[in-house]
């Protein structure tokens, strides 16, 4: 997520906001997957 934030600061257009949004979606998916992995056992 910090990388997405730095990329959005470097790109001061609509793509900067899209980068942050994409990073947030990826983070949410990874959190769900991590929860699934840890609760199976």
Topology:
Elements: H1 2-10, H2 14-40
Helix pairs in contact: 1-2
Give a brief description.
By secondary structure, the protein is mostly helical. It is built from two helices and no strands.
Structure in words:
- By secondary structure, this protein is mainly α.
- The chain has helices at residues 2-10, 14-40.
- The protein is elongated, with a radius of gyration of 13 Å.
- The mean pLDDT is 82.
The helix content, as a percent range, equals: over 70%
Overall SS class = mainly alpha
The mean pLDDT is 82
Terminal-residue CA separation = 28 Å
Largest sheet: none
Which runs of at least 5 residues are low in confidence (pLDDT < 50)? none
Could you state the order of secondary-structure elements as H and E?
Answer: HH
Keywords:
41 residues, mainly alpha, 2 helices, 88% helix, elongated
